[in-house]
């Protein structure tokens, strides 16, 4: 797989994830902080496509960003805040309170389409080049502030390929896991919680509607509970609380047994559903 194809798939996955998790956010959830002193959820959802827009158009191509086009004229008062890096928590709150979910999702789709179109038009040699970002950004006062420049200073010498991959390929990893399905995803989650830097690799499109049946009994359910996804897994498929066996022409039923009363059931989950949850 060449680099441009890889990037198109990754950006498509990211856009799908944005929609999957944000489509049904309530206004209250949009303005919620995950923890004390953290950015509101609405800011984070806005920031993801906003950063893509910035690096493609202003940083690499030296063009006006989509966020500053006529379609998004109602966002113009946010222009001095740029992509929302190197700003105060109060300013990030202003962004979250000024943009709305439906607009942000439409904006994310427009940015995604622009990225995919650009990647389809260029050769890999373009991604090997180091863009004249400092020269390109001089046309944009919002990207000359001390806060912004401090945040991005280490990116100026990076070629386009590493910028589009969010600079993650140059990180040092404690663990590299090949295979991002059930075992790989859960192992990566647990290692991350213990403070390890983990790179999780998967060769297939993710999530995928692979013809596969994942049948879970109590041992697997205990693992899901430990990593905090049992409720979500359970809500995606009806529990099987009675086990049926066919023996010598007779059908015998008995309740599913487990040491824990709340785990006395089996689950049969579609692979694509489980992929979304683990992702």
What is the fold's blueprint, element by element?
Elements: H1 3-22, H2 27-30, H3 41-60, H4 89-98, H5 101-121, H6 124-128, H7 133-137, H8 146-152, H9 160-164, E1 175-178, H10 182-193, E2 198-201, E3 213-216, H11 218-227, H12 230-235, E4 242-247, E5 250-255, E6 267-270, H13 271-278
Parallel strand pairs: 1-2
Antiparallel strand pairs: 3-6, 4-5
Describe this structure in words.
This protein is mainly α and 279 residues long. It has three domains: 3-166, no CATH class; 171-203, no CATH class; 213-278, no CATH class. The chain is 48% helix and 10% strand. The protein is built from 13 helices and six strands. It has a two-stranded parallel sheet. The longest helix has 21 residues, at 101-121. 23% of the residues are buried. Residues 167-171 have low confidence and may be disordered.
Short description:
The protein is mostly helical. The chain is built from 13 helices and six strands. Helix content is about 50%, strand content about 10%.
């Amino acid at each position: 797989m060449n680099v441009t194809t890889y990037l198109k798939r990754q950006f498509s996955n990211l856009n799908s994830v944005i929609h999957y998790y944000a489509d049904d956010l309530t206004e209250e959830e949009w303005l919620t902080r995950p923890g004390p002193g953290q950015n509101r959820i609405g800011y984070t959802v806005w920031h993801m496509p906003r950063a893509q827009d910035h690096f493609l158009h202003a940083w690499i191509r030296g063009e006006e960003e989509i966020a500053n086009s006529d379609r998004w004229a109602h966002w113009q008062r946010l222009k001095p805040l740029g992509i929302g890096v190197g700003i105060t928590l109060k300013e990030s709150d202003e962004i979250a309170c000024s943009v709305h979910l439906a607009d942000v999702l439409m904006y994310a789709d427009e940015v995604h389409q622009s990225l995919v179109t650009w990647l389809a038009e260029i050769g890999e040699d373009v991604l090997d080049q180091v863009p004249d970002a400092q020269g390109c950004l001089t046309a944009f006062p919002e990207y000359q502030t001390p806060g912004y420049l401090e945040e991005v200073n280490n990116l100026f010498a990076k070629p386009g390929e590493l910028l589009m991959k969010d600079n993650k390929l140059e990180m040092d990893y404690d663990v590299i896991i090949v295979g991002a399905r059930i075992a790989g995803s859960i192992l990566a989650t647990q290692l991350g919680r213990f403070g390890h830097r983990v790179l999780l690799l998967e060769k297939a499109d993710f999530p995928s509607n692979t013809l596969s049946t994942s049948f879970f009994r109590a041992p697997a359910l205990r693992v899901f509970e430990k990593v905090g996804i049992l409720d979500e897994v359970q809500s995606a498929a009806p529990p099987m609380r009675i086990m049926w066996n066919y023996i010598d022409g007779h059908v015998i039923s008995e309740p599913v047994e487990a040491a824990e009363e709340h785990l006395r059931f089996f689950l049969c989950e579609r692979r694509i559903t489980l992929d979304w949850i683990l992702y």
